[in-house]
Input
Amino acid sequence: MTRTLLLCGAAALAMTALAGPARADCHWQPERPVTYVVPWGAGGGTDANSRMLASLLEEQMGQPFNVVNRTGGNGVVGHSAIATATPDGYTIGAATVEITTMHHAGLTELNHTDITPIALVDIVPSSVLVAADSPFDSVNALLDHARANPGELTGSGTAQGGIWHLALAGMLNAEGIDPGAIRWVPSDGAASAMQELIAGGVEVATPALSEGKALVEAGEIKALAYMHDSRMAALPDVPTTKEALDSEWTLAAFITVSGPAGLPDEIACAYEQAALAAFDTQAWADFKASRGADVVKMGREDLTAMLARTSDNLGATMRAIGLAQ
Amino acid sequence: MLEALDLVARWDVLATIGLAACYGLFVGSVPGLTATMSVALLVPITFFLDPVPAIAAIATASATAIFAGDIPGALLRIPGTPASAAYVDEAFALTRQGHAERALATSLVTAALGGLIGVLLLSVFAQQLARIAVRFSSVEYFWLGCLGLTAAIAVANASLVKGALALLIGLFISTIGIDIATGHARFTYGQIDLLDGVSFIPAMIGMFALSQVLRTVTMDLDGRTVTAKVGRLWIEMVGVVRRYWANILRSAGLGNVIGALPGAGADIAAWVAYALSRRFSRTPERYGQGHAEGIADAGAANNSAVAGAWTPALVFGIPGDTVTAIAIGVLMLKGITPSPRVFITDGTLVHAIFLAFALANLIMLPLGMVAIHAARHALAIPKRVLMPLILIFCLIGAFAVDNTLFSVGVMLVLGLIAYVMEENGIPIAPAILGIVLGKIIEKNFLITMIKTQGDLLGFFDRPVAAVLGVMTLGLWTVLIAAAVHRAVRPVPSEGPRR
Output
């Protein structure tokens, strides 16, 4: 009895703490299974984060969350599935940074105003990777070579115009080098790009450092830089681009949990609460630690602002490097 | 090794393996539910398990699901998983002759042996194999895809022209969707669901299963159902091993290597093993008429590939297929970071995983026999009842892939196309292979062209690529020369097969 009371008290405390400014009541609960759309393939970072969160939401909300990978069209298919779903709370999904860039690229009309952001799940900074036997030992040596020999080196990481392409071209542009000085070789994901890197098919790859971590630790590839303003705790020897480059260029992708536009406030608020509570669990902390990532916590208000800001910033970069339509 | 045995020989690990085997058999035998899906559904459960039972559950479910895919394939001509598609015609032909027990016994025993050999190779050669596999770039994959396409001609049982036509239909279907190099959408007519191309599993269900339903309904709905004798599974299994032990060894080795290549998986292993089996067989003319030899080869290859896919996953964290892609996530969650040093840092654990894998393949024999006995009753059902049931399975299977009605539409349209094709003697198998390989070949061709800036010699300037390229071109020359030879001196050929 005492225990129940204590639990109730703790729950009430947690609620007041999380609810922040007075909102509509957040008591909405799903009554049947929820579909959780992931726009990227099984096995990747978005998939792993989303599956973990889905299983925690399942515990929080008492209904099964079915993770569905809707891949294709460089993310357009999955993001459309999230945005065009009925806003009844039974379809949510992992909208990623691409929701702010793909409309600039002319892939789709869809943009960040077509979804209801709920919470930030992960921040995924990019990196500069080369093969273990590469002659380049620093990001500056690599950039100097690219400046002197435009078009000789090739880089990969994702599809043409994808976020990791933007990371490489944006970095070159920020350093005053022609964005095409390292030619982009499209791949269908970070895994196949790193395979090309090890096999000697390309000279540079710029996926997330978290995606390359295992291979860096295995000594198969070298990480020259982390495109972030602070070093990764799991790989403290990798310098950041903020330290190494004059332009202090950084670029991070991110993963959110979002619903379709027009999701009623009551439902969005209930999901926000459940997601933030899930981020506080030990299971989530262990999961994040195993991937060498930090736990991030950001609710819908800040996330909405961040999406708008990212769209403007990345849009400007894309126009500068000729990736925008 | 003894420490590893200690980790596995516990009741909770053994119980997990037993349950996962039953679960894998069930999921694999439902058309449309793949081995990947069986593993994906297991992930939330593995969060609550210790590392060894968690990985054991994944390994067991994937191995048994790949075998179980053969059950509906042999009995109803619906491959339960894509890995069974290569030899579904062969197995179904045996069932129609009343030899379902031979088809299934062959599948079961070769699956178990292939899996065991695969684990053995994995534990001995994983590190060396991974070194080779990881050196493959887009050029090597391009040539590998071309070799696979050449296999399509060997798979086809009909005339060369009709086989080629089927292949072209498959290749055309594979061009639908966004093109990776330029990002342009092709043949999508504004359908967002088509951007990723025609998804393979609904296509496979439609082309094999729905076309079979249509043909049965239009031709012999009242025909007597073949009664299958399933009493002599053990005898059949012993016979298969005695007759085809060389095939099983060869294909298990081959399947393991193909499985270790990132991106190629159990399905490709089965296609290649089947094609090679026919080429090296003393009785190639019996293929497609219901010949257990092809099933033995492909069945051993796909289960060995399941083990092979763990090679690059454990050593480099690069998944060999979608199952191991998920497994990597679970490994890392359990504190095991894939690396070449994984055999030193987590040696006991890795050996425990191998043991669990071997155990899964052993337990598959008795459990698989039970599953076959249970499934045989499907054949006793009158066709008037069975066909609508299969149709429902097709609809559910297609829907289950990504929870969209669009996939059901894809399944229905391709089923109709396949029906028309078969009515005109055009085989289905090469079309399916075209859908699988078309994307791989096109993607890697374009990537290579971008890398070399249009220089065709770039396809030969890496040693492995040069060997594969010369092999492929040599094979084509031989095939064309043989065709010309035959055209000059015509030999009586067999009629189109139904």
